[in-house]
Predict the 3D structure of the following.
Amino acid sequence: MLCFSGLGFTGSDPSLACGDVEGKFDVLFNRVRAIQKKSGNFDLLLCVGNFFGSTPDAEWEEYKTGIKKAPIQTYVLGANNQETVKYFQDADGCELAENITYLGRKGIFTGSSGLQIVYLSGTESLNEPVPGYSFSPKDVSSLRTMLCSTSQFKGVDILLTSPWPKYVGNFGNSSGEVDTKKCGSALVSSLATGLKPRYHFAALEKTYYERLPYRNHIVLQENAQHATRFIALANVGNPEKKKYLYAFSIVPMKLMDTAELVKQPPDVTENPYRKSGKEASIGKQIPAPEEETACQFFFDLNEKQGRKRSSPGRDSKSSPHPKQPRKPPQPPGPCWFCLASPEVEKHLVVNIGTHCYLALAKGGLCDDHVLILPIGHYQSVVELSAEVVEEVEKYKATLRRFFKSRGKRCVLFERNYKSHHLQLQVIPVPLSCCTTDDIKDAFITQAQEQQIELLEIPEHSDIKQIAQPGAAYFYVELDTGEKLFHRIKKNFPLQFGREVLASEAILNIPDKSDWRQCQISKEEEETLACRFRKDFEPFDFTLDD
């Protein structure tokens, strides 16, 4: 049932892709254990199609409650029918059981080896309102626009969808009993055309089909680009013994030499979507996104504050040749925190600098819980450029002074794990609650209880000296400058930082350890943001620029 990709296992950790599990968890995971015993460990398992079935939940309960455990980090797509929507409560993705994670409705996930994996859950729907188990033209449009809008975009490593792309069989080898002119999703075809994945996995048709690789460029008219391999996988434990597991290992695109990346396989075919004449109409309707920079937000914010200041990149009468700022890094996919992104909840933004901005935390631990975020797309502190680091430090020092004036000390932490954009959490703790040593002890004690190795690092050390770009980690910085660091090797509790600060030993608000339980109305958020802007104004160093 296992098919090994012909690329070999060189240069990156091998991974597994799987078709419809349909609730046969024991069959799948026993098979994975057997494979790992024979072939060595795999980095992750990607499941497309129906993860849950119509069978009773007894087997799933054993995994959900921890009686049984998946032997490998497993990532799954969401529901494809109304019956299984109940299992996927959080549209943004969540942990379903230990080692089993729901990716979410749509987005991009970066594996530990650096692989960029784009995912789209559900089946196609052209109706409004869109069912909870479907994706719409708008979903596909936003994914394509966010990912393809930069001139540097070359493609993605992996695309995960449940439906096949319509017309995928054009110019290719036989797809068996599946008529690709009738079956599948035209929206997925459009997405695959735009994203140019090196691998595209799908399921739902209960058969195995490995299409010949197809090219993503027009010969003699465009520069050579990498080829795409489409693999449809069968359902787990099917009686016909069709392949439902596929092992592959590829070096992330961003680490590859261009000549090696665009090397064409000998059996490469024409692109099945380009010449069909029937590509999903959405692909032709997407306009080139307008160039949005962070500058637009200076006006929005200062209009509310009743004053204006100049922002980098705007024309200035005092300088006939204004210096053009370096364009901030762009996100590889939809991002809730890139300031130029339409996804940003702008009413939460409370201050904007040249390279960073401050925003109230959604579902904050307290009314003045804020985030320091880079304007451009950086995943972690380790990846920040020198000028961004300088402004982050400036914001940290300013916030310490601001909170000290209000009888509070601030604690900062970052979790570079299952996150796409750097979020430096800044939580003020009233001086009357506890001492800095109490906070430090609380982090160390709770880390020990959860078997997390939290190491103290020198006060003036740089996180970049300890963690490499792409490495997963958690660190907390106290108001004294002391830092505690944990290198994440496998699993890590996503709410750990909040749980410690919310505990009885510090803020004594244990019911607020999960931000999702602390959400308030947009009107209340706007009131808090307005109040913070006014209070912070005397400390606002950006007004001096």
In short: The radius of gyration is 25 Å. DSSP finds eleven helices and 24 strands in the chain. Residues 386-404 form the longest helix (19 residues).
